[in-house]
């Protein structure tokens, strides 16, 4: 079994976000500063770790909760991407890239209120199998075309990019952080 661990600076606010914003539910509190969230394909452990503490023994490392890039993030598969994005936004997620439509479905890139990246993914048709091809040259051509086409258009179908929450939500989210 795989368990996903996410460092957060405030456990109670993190539980609130992952419940309200992503539809998970609190499973157990395993000890002070540790909550198990259920409802995904693997348990997600929220671990309260204060900003400035050292995550490793490596010199110069310190936790911070400003938005940071990491090569590891979680994709949450959803049935209705538009509804899931709005739910996460209303719980103070930051929408970093709005909806992108692909051959396999749609994706939106977000960050939780603590700077941890995540994606919401809605599969269509055969999901990722839509990009498999019996003709390897076609797949290679598609990939080259995407690479040379410049950055993807991350706009909503309406053409408006997803952005931050409205005024009321911004005030509430500012207090959330």
The CATH first-level class of the largest domain comes to Alpha Beta
Distance between the termini: 32 Å
Number of helices: 4
Q: How many beta strands in the DSSP annotation? A: 8
Low-confidence stretches: 137-168
Strand-helix topology:
Blueprint: E1 4-8, H1 11-20, E2 25-31, E3 34-38, E4 44-48, E5 74-77, H2 81-90, E6 94-101, E7 105-111, E8 117-123, H3 136-148, H4 167-176
Parallel strand pairs: 1-4, 5-8
Antiparallel strand pairs: 2-3, 3-4, 6-7, 7-8
Would you mind describing this structure in some detail?
With 177 residues, this protein is of the alpha/beta class. It has two domains: 1-50, 2,3-Dihydroxybiphenyl 1,2-Dioxygenase, domain 1 (Roll), CATH 3.10.180.10; 65-177, Signal recognition particle alu RNA binding heterodimer, srp9/1 (2-Layer Sandwich), CATH 3.30.720. 24% of the residues lie in helices and 27% in strands. The chain has helices at residues 11-20, 81-90, 136-148, 167-176; strands at 4-8, 25-31, 34-38, 44-48, 74-77, 94-101, 105-111, 117-123. The strands form two sheets. Strands 1-4-3-2 form a four-stranded mixed beta sheet, covered by helices on one side. Strand 6 (94-101) and strand 7 form a beta hairpin. The chain is globular. The two termini are 32 Å apart. 19% of the residues are buried. Mean pLDDT is 82; it is low at 137-168.
């Amino acid at each position: 079994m795989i368990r996903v661990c996410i460092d957060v600076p405030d456990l109670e606010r993190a539980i609130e976000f992952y419940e309200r914003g992503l539809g998970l539910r609190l499973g157990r509190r395993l000890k002070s500063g540790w909550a198990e969230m259920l409802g995904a394909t693997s348990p997600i452990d929220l671990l309260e770790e204060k900003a400035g503490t050292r995550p490793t023994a490596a010199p110069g490392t310190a936790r911070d909760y400003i938005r940071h890039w990491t090569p590891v993030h979680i994709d949450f598969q959803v049935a209705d991407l538009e509804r899931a994005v709005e739910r996460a936004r209303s719980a103070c997620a930051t929408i970093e890239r709005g909806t992108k439509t692909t051959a396999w479905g749609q994706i939106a890139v977000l960050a939780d209120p603590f700077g941890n990246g995540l994606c919401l993914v809605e599969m269509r048709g055969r999901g990722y199998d839509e990009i498999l091809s019996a003709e390897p040259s076609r797949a290679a051509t598609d990939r080259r075309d995407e690479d040379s086409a410049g950055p993807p258009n991350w706009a909503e179908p309406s053409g408006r990019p997803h952005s931050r929450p409205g005024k009321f939500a911004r005030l509430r989210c500012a207090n959330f952080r």
